[in-house]
Amino acid sequence: MFFILSKTLAFFASPINLALVIGAAGIALCLAGRRRPGCALGAGALLFLLVLGFSPIPLLLALPLETRFPPLPADAPAPDGIIVLGGSMDEQSSSRHGQAVINDAAERLTEALRLRRLYPRARLVFTGGSASLRGSEHTEAEFVEKFWSALGLDASDVLYESRSRNTYENAVFTRDLVHPAPGERWLLVTSATHMPRAVGLFRKAGFPVVADPVDYRTSGEFGWTLNPRASDNFALAELATHEWIGLVAYRLTGKTDALFPAP
């Protein structure tokens, strides 16, 4: 039920979608003869998009998420295992074309290969099923296995968890798959903006992990300069808003112990 509700409400949780809906409502009111409230809604939606598209507000939203967990030190001790979260495949395109179609979170997959070379004895786990609300005959794990195998990674050396549909299920199903022993050191590889939520969920599931954030979308520093590319700001705002809403939702439903998990 939580999965279905989260997917349904995700449309209106998007600031861009919300602005477009409000703008469309304003146009509808104008066409219906209610010009004053219609113009107010339309102007408000346009102003919101202009501010979001060119101001540093998206950067302000993303920076606390990306900098919450530091990068993995170069001298970090060897782990017992490595967990790679799904989210790096375009599920619909991969299913349609029958091959791995990677999105802009590809560093999750390449970081896993780097770690594999550094720590060949560590257990490697990929966790990711289908995030489609309607379900799918294919899973992300299936296409990641094809992608890694094509790059020379022996499939027998990797555990693939293919039932999970969201990060909460990533944590629970991976725990049940690997049964981590007390004192074991497991690295968690996911996007830097997603790391606080992911770590909180794994901790609540009784699976302590060490963060290895990748896929940074900012420079890590704040500046008041205007961004000339509105599309970049829109993408960053969508990503950061999704994570903040996810943090609140998982805390309210008791799936994490902290609103903003820390190292």
UniProtKB/TrEMBL annotation:
<keyword id="KW-1133">Transmembrane helix</keyword>
<dbReference type="Pfam" id="PF02698">
    <property type="entry name" value="DUF218"/>
</dbReference>
<dbReference type="GO" id="GO:0000270">
    <property type="term" value="P:peptidoglycan metabolic process"/>
</dbReference>
<dbReference type="GO" id="GO:0005886">
    <property type="term" value="C:plasma membrane"/>
</dbReference>
<dbReference type="InterPro" id="IPR003848">
    <property type="entry name" value="DUF218"/>
</dbReference>
<feature type="transmembrane region" description="Helical">
    <location>
        <begin position="39"/>
        <end position="63"/>
    </location>
</feature>
<feature type="transmembrane region" description="Helical">
    <location>
        <begin position="12"/>
        <end position="32"/>
    </location>
</feature>
<dbReference type="GO" id="GO:0043164">
    <property type="term" value="P:Gram-negative-bacterium-type cell wall biogenesis"/>
</dbReference>
<dbReference type="InterPro" id="IPR014729">
    <property type="entry name" value="Rossmann-like_a/b/a_fold"/>
</dbReference>
<keyword id="KW-0812">Transmembrane</keyword>
<protein>
    <submittedName>
        <fullName>Membrane protein</fullName>
    </submittedName>
</protein>
<feature type="domain" description="DUF218">
    <location>
        <begin position="80"/>
        <end position="246"/>
    </location>
</feature>
<keyword id="KW-0472">Membrane</keyword>
<dbReference type="InterPro" id="IPR051599">
    <property type="entry name" value="Cell_Envelope_Assoc"/>
</dbReference>
